Amino acid sequence: METEVIQIAEHNIDEASQKSLFRAGKVIRDGGLVAFPTETVYGLGGDALNPESSRKIYAAKGRPSDNPLIVHVADMEHLETIVKEVPESARKLAKAFWPGPLTMIMNKNDKVPYETTGGLDTVAIRMPNNQIALELIRQSGGFIAAPSANTSGRPSPTVARYCVEDLSGKIEMIIDGGQVGIGLESTIVDLTSDVPMILRPGYITLEMLKEVLGQVDVDRTIIDGNSGQRPKAPGMKYRHYAPKGQLTIIQGEQSKVVEYINLHAKEASESGKKVGVIGTDSTKSLYHADVIKSVGDRKDEKTIAHELFKVLREFDDENIDIMFSESFDDSGFGQAIMNRLLKAAGHNVIII
Length: 352
Ligand code: AMP
Ligand code: MG
Hints:
Blueprint: E1 4-7, H1 15-29, E2 34-36, E3 43-47, H2 51-61, E4 70-72, H3 76-80, H4 88-97, E5 102-107, H5 114-117, E6 122-126, H6 131-139, E7 144-145, H7 160-167, E8 173-176, E9 187-190, E10 197-200, H8 206-213, E11 217-218, H9 220-223, E12 246-251, H10 254-270, E13 275-279, E14 291-294, H11 301-317, E15 322-326, H12 334-344, E16 349-351
Parallel strand pairs: 1-8, 2-8, 4-6, 5-9, 10-11, 12-15, 12-16, 13-14, 13-15
Antiparallel strand pairs: 2-3, 3-7, 4-7, 5-6, 9-10
Helix pairs in contact: 1-6, 11-12
């Protein structure tokens, strides 16, 4: 299959872009797949109410079919039509955070096929805060099932070229809307339990949710990789976000971290490996390795989230065998950053 790549500027959707979005919407209405930008990461979209479309999404990504998809909507009325009821908590959260990087889990009704929910009676729903995404959803009938637009297991794409790398030849169309704003996937909160529970951390933090709902829990498996429990979001049990080389996170006092990384980078280099280091703006110049990249400003977590997946992909582009990364504060939005980094590293952490 030939994959068409089209460019659209989110804040300048002119008549030509509108026509392209109409065409993209038709691809989805006809059962095809389109990768598109959201404010979190690029999504791989198909008609959420068409079981065949969901099957195609799993096939294109190589994703296990028990890992449910998030349904994207563009307005509240549409949400009402696919769930048994909209809980009061969902209305409050939608008012506070939609459109935005928050996915809510509710009880589905019969309109949503089990192919989309990985066999579950619940459905994950989100309204993305990106004009291209919202217009595409409207043009394609109102319900787009979209996981991240990467091959299963790899870091999620934050620029279109990584959608092209993973999905070219497998889907009908890719919409290039430039680098996304946030860079990490949405926060997922389950509203079907007595106390709402965060199943995946993201830009909308525990503190932000508590401000709206009062009591909110966090799935323990997010924080503790060795809890031995099954994550409540089926997708969180899989190896994810992984670069091709081996990544180790080094945690400790900054000068010791730099010393450790430089020593081990040298050793690995001498044994013929290509070595990469993930540092920050203030530490980048202190490292010696084949490739050194900054993920941003340690004091501004948004910069780190924005760059993390891109940097992991760039190490793949440069065929890096061994990577070392600094560790980051895991409170607030940092919890999402560390959750992704730990998964990318297969929980390979050295504390010094
Ligand atoms: P992705 O589409 O790559 O952002 O992954 C979607 C995530 O949402 C996966 O971790 C899924 O397991 C999770 N998810 C989707 N639907 C549900 C659901 N009904 N219940 C629990 N987790 C879900
Ligand atoms: Mg994903």
